[in-house]
Each structure stands twice: as C-alpha cells, then as structure tokens.
Amino acid sequence: DVKVTQSSRYLVKRTGEKVFLECVQDMDHENMFWYRQDPGLGLRLIYFSYDVKMKEKGDIPEGYSVSREKKERFSLILESASTNQTSMYLCASSRQGSYNSPLHFGNGTRLTVT
Amino acid sequence: GQNIDQPTEMTATEGAIVQINCTYQTSGFNGLFWYQQHAGEAPTFLSYNVLDGLEEKGRFSSFLSRSKGYSYLLLKELQMKDSASYLCAVSEEGANNLFFGTGTRLTVIP
Question: How far is Cα B103 from Cα B76, in angstroms, rounded to an integer?
Fold first, then answer.
C-alpha cells in the first residue's frame, strides 16, 4: 500500500512566521501535490510537482512556495504565515503517465495561524 | 476550465440505498474519480470512470454519462460507517492534477 506521510498532524504558528510542511511518499511516485481544504470550498490545489526540482502553480499559489529536492519528498513553505492560511493541508502523490492513477493522500496537517 | 457541482449534505437511513450526484463541465474530459473522506482523515480512492456506464465494486457503484456531464455514486445497504464526505473529482487531458468538487457530507442514521 502507498504511504504518504505528513510530518505534523497539528501545527499552531504566529502571524509572520515561516512555516514548513513536509510530505514523504514511499511508492516512487513521480507526481506530488499540495492541496488545502476549507469548509464549503473543497480541495484546492496550491502547487504540484511532476519530477525532482520541477514545480507547477496550482489554483491558489499566492503566499506559498514548494521544494522538491528528492523524489520522495515535497515540502510546502509559507514564507510569512497569515491568518487566512489557517486550513487543513493535504499532500498527495500519484504515478505519472497513467490517466487513471488515483491520488494517494496523507492524513493532513491542520495549521492554525494566530 | 471546470465546474463541478455536488450536493452539500445528504441524510439516509441504515440499510437503505443512497445516490450522490455530481455534474461537471470541463474541457478535455479524461475521467472521473470518487473519493471517501471520514472526518479528520485523508480522502481515500473509491472508483474511477472514463467510459459511460456503471462500475460496480461491492456495495458501491459509480455511473458516468459523458454526454450529460454527469456521474453518481450509489451506496447500497448503508452502514453507519458510511457516514463521511464523498468527493467527486475530474481529470482533464494534459493535466497531472485533479479538479475536485466541494464534497457531499453523508450522514447515515439508525
């Protein structure tokens, strides 16, 4: 079974802090994704990566950056956290080249910015 | 672009059948996924449809009509553990990511 592990389940940070959310997958998947999930808005894509050192903006990249230095690890960075970034953050991975390859999600990180 | 619509909430009785609908508008349709998400947990993959018709997998079935931009997830013999959110997601040609609806929260009552 694919395992996607997010480093923290809950995080509380102060406004202006730099925040790192880490995600590791163990199935050698090429694609990795960061979503945020908010009530009434569903899952929205922040960034994704289809290869090491490659990244693509999703629907809501503002205020975020990402890093993919190794295939198994995809980091989401909030350069200067703000209260509107309080949300559930979900990391996912999938195989490339197969259109029916489902996303495999981590358990999420609930971030609160005060 | 894509516009994915599903009901916000549904309630059904244990042992009954429930149908959760999803409509979509997208360019270059390349398949539709259903995910289940229990409160506080990660979404998990349920089904994938790319051709018209019904795909059955145990108590769960998923239907697709590409010409109508319509899918449904059918849950039979409902159990209390089926209380969860059900997410419809569309794949587009040339895109590596999925586009999600806002999800339908299903509550199963005794």
Answer: 19
Question: Where in chain A does DSSP place strands (E)?
Answer: 4-6, 10-13, 19-25, 31-38, 42-49, 56-57, 64-70, 73-78, 87-94, 104-105, 109-113
Reply yes or no on whether the pLDDT at A21 is more than 60. Answer: yes
B55-64: pLDDT as tens digits:
998 999 999 9
Of the listed ranges B1-5, B14-18, B59-63, B96-100, the least confidently predicted one is B1-5
Residue B101: closest C-alpha in chain A: A42
Q: What is the nearest CA distance from A20 to chain B, expressed in angstroms? A: 20
| Residue A101: strand, helix, or coil | coil
Residue B81: CB atoms within 10 A of its CB come to 8
Is any Cβ of chain A less than 8 angstroms from the Cβ of B102? yes
The three-state secondary structure class of A85 is helix
Instruction: Copy the structure tokens of residue A63.
Output: 């205020």
Query: Residue B31 in contact with residue A100, Cβ under 8 Å?
Result: yes
